[in-house]
Write a structure and sequence with these properties.
three-stranded antiparallel β-sheet; globular; about 45% helix; alpha+beta; single chain
Length: about 70
């Protein structure tokens, strides 16, 4: 089961500004999974994945993820 969170909470969880979440959406690193009224909702796991991509820490197929 996925946890859906607002952009503000997503920013807090990722340690970035809410504007960074919006930028990740613009760049295609993150996509809203739903809406609550006018607010976009994101899956927490998608936020962490976007953070890894945006920071250049995505694991390549030849390298296992860091622990």
């Amino acid at each position: 089961m996925s946890c859906f969170i607002t952009g503000e909470l997503a920013a807090a969880e990722a340690g970035v500004a809410p504007a960074t979440i919006r930028k990740w959406v613009q760049l295609g690193h993150l996509r809203a999974a739903g809406r609550q009224g006018r607010k976009a909702l994101y899956r927490l796991e998608d936020v962490f994945s976007a953070e890894r991509v945006a920071r250049g820490r995505a694991a390549s197929p030849n390298h296992p993820p860091e622990s």
